[in-house]
Amino acid sequence: MDDALTIAGRAYHSRLLVGTGKYKDFEETRAAVEASGAEIVTVAIRRTNIGQNAGEASLLDFLPPSRYTYLPNTAGCYTAEDAVRTLRLARELLDGHSLVKLEVLGDPKTLFPDMPETLRAAETLVKEGFEVMVYCSDDPIQARRLEEIGCVAIMPLASIIGSGMGILNPWNLRLIIEQARVPVLVDAGVGTASDAAIAMELGCDAVLMNSAIAHAKNPVLMARAMKKAVAAGREAFLAGRMPRKLYLAEPSSPSEGLISAAG
Longest C-alpha distance within the chain, in Å? Predict the structure, then answer.
């Protein structure tokens, strides 16, 4: 694991994190997750059964926690209190599990984060021993405050959740990446493989997505494409792209030693 993704002290091979909602059934969820190569899977506690609904099919039977790291999230929460309450329940259901994804929404139409409520919830959760990965706006100041509170990963949106619009503000994202001392993951807005590759080329540590895979015409095939895109983008970032130039042509092969017409 020469280039491992490390979150809260644990190393992972894959830099692609995937959601488990919006699929037609748990079988399709399992197939897509397996194709993605992801090791961390998010689960919306308010929408997915992981044991709180006795007698119903449980995601745990299809994606065993012995194989995957579960990342319970607070999708659908609009206040700090709701978010904290939801993650306390998740910790009980998952036997003391502390790694969580915090999101506190401010608007039901755009699903933009409510940053004052997010900051308030983050403070409470960190004090209670949670390892908080946090969905946030692409504001570098807010991202820095979340890191100062003690969040273990910062997850700015690329664009509106479920929009598939890709990265709309790469400059803000770069500012967040440059200042961060914890992993930065693009969360929300990825639509296709090129979006994921661009996020990684910019220097993101990982990408989290759900709709881009689950809403594809062929989710399993798209999951495989995303796996390759994240890996390719990471390698391109590590390799270091050539500088952009305007009107400065350079031959792709050396010009020395060529046979001249006069010779």
Answer: 89
24 is catalytic: no
Q: pLDDT in tens for each of the 263 residues of the chain? A: 578 999 999 999 999 999 998 999 999 999 999 999 999 999 988 777 776 677 777 888 899 888 999 999 999 999 999 999 999 999 988 888 899 999 999 988 888 999 999 999 999 999 999 999 999 999 999 999 999 999 999 999 988 888 888 898 899 999 999 999 999 999 988 999 999 999 999 999 999 999 999 999 999 999 999 999 999 999 999 999 888 887 766 666 666 666 665 55
The DSSP letter of residue 129 is T
Find out whether 60 and 50 touch, Cβ atoms under 8 Å.
yes
In angstroms, how far is CA 259 from the centroid of its own chain?
Answer: 55
Catalytic choice (22, 24, 101, 245): 101
Which one, of 242, 231, 228, lies nearest residue 3 by Cα?
Answer: 231
Q: Where are the beta strands (DSSP E) in the chain?
A: 5-7, 10-12, 16-19, 40-44, 69-73, 99-102, 131-136, 153-156, 185-187, 206-209
